[in-house]
Amino acid sequence: MTTTLSLDDPTTDPFLVARAAADHIAHATGIEGHDVALVLGSGWGGAAELLGDVVAEIPTNEIPGFSKPAVAGHVGTTRSIRIERADGSVRHALVLGSRTHLYEGKGVRHVVHGVRTAAATGAQTVILTNGCGGLNLDHGPGTPVLIRDHINLTATSPLEGATFVDLTDLYSPRLRDLARSVDGSLGEGVYAQFPGPHYETPAEVRMAGILGADLVGMSTTLEAIAARHAGLEVLGISLVTNLAAGISPTPLSHGEVIEAGQAAGPRISSLLAQIAKLV
Predict the structure, then answer these.
(1) Binding residue positions for a purine D-ribonucleoside
(2) Residue 91 is inside which H or E element, if any?
(3) What is the SS3 assignment for 79?
(4) Contact 96, 87 (CB under 8 A)
(5) Which residues contribute to the annotated binding site?
(6) Residue 166: phi, psi to the nearest 5?
(7) Are 212 and 152 in contact (CB under 8 A)?
(8) What is the CATH T-level fold of the domain 23-275, as seen in this structure?
(9) If exposure means fewest CB atoms within 10 Å of the residue's CB, which of 73, 170, 219, 270 is most exposed?
(10) What pTM value is reported for the model?
(11) Which letter, b or e, does each residue of 7-31 get, where b requires 16 or more Cβ atoms within 10 Å of its Cβ?
(12) What are the two backbone dihedrals, phi and then psi, of residue 151, each rounded to the nearest 5 degrees?
């Protein structure tokens, strides 16, 4: 009898599920290992087409531990892309077109399964992207911002048991410098993750600002923690899709997020592809 590994079973090691997912990806793509992984959030989907040649495309929900995307604007496929670098070397990128959010209620294991799978495929680097609200008026809608640090306001962690991981320089200074070598105008900020799915109140946004946040959203921090634990070097980039509540003069809507992402798409996709070819 074949036993199906499930992230919902608390007795199952989530890293075994990640290993099974990586094996499935290797079989489906014909690529034994990947070098870099990208998680494409709202507005960032167009970058995949600019990275290089698509070796294979897999329905994400067919990979062990994954499900169909629950958010409009996210892509339900995982792609293996061959990247030819300027120095003549070849690398393979694993592009995750969707992510599981904490507010979906599936549990934090599902939220971080993508980055754990990326590590299991052999990736050394992960680029985490998202669409977010901005607190800094200098970072208006359509502005990409490097994540320098984060504030996890979800009241949970992807680490289980007595697992202690240093998060100093979680968002790699080396990779941030590399990103600025592509675009010297890139600013930096601190990203605060709220649980969602409701948008933050003006009072919560003010609180986040007092705590030191420049950006607010509903993803990324738990993935970044899990990525560090798995040994990945992390680059985080946010696309400011709207000014946060209390800063924006108009009510917030998911349609606004998608519209801003579409408007900025060509520029940020080109930026991300150039960065990914250097890491």
Answers:
(1) 200, 242
(2) strand 90-96
(3) strand
(4) no
(5) 42, 74, 99-101, 131, 200, 219, 242
(6) -75, 125
(7) no
(8) Rossmann fold (3.40.50)
(9) 270
(10) 0.92
(11) beeeebebeebbbbbbebbbebbeb
(12) -125, 115
> Could you tell me where the DSSP H helices lie in the chain?
14-29, 48-51, 108-120, 173-182, 202-211, 221-229, 254-276
| Segment 186-204 mean pLDDT | 95
The binding site for phosphate consists of 42, 74, 99-101, 131, 219
Which residue in this structure is represented by tokens 């052999």? 122
Q: How far apart are the first and last CA of the chain?
A: 43
What's the DSSP call for residue 212? T
pLDDT in tens, 103-137: 999 999 999 999 999 999 999 999 999 999 999 98
Other Cβ atoms closer than 10 A to 49: 13
CA distances (Å), origin 92, targets 15, 33, 233, 240: 22, 8, 16, 28
pLDDT tens, position by position, 212-258? 999 999 999 999 999 999 999 999 999 998 888 878 666 766 676 67
Give yes or no for a contact between 193 and 218, defined as CB atoms under 8 angstroms apart. yes
Active-site residue (options: 62, 160, 200, 223): 200
Question: What φ, ψ does residue 39 adopt, rounded to 5°?
Answer: -105, 115
**What six digits make up the tokens of 173?**
């200074």
Write the DSSP string, 237-271. EEEEEEEPBTTBSS---HHHHHHHHHHHHHHHHHH
> Domain boundaries in the chain?
23-275
Q: Tell me, what DSSP letter sits at residue 193?
A: E
32, exposed or middle or buried, with CB in 10 Å at 0-12, 13-18, 19+? Answer: exposed
Rounded Cα distance between 96 and 249, Å, is: 34
Give the DSSP letter of residue 171. Answer: B
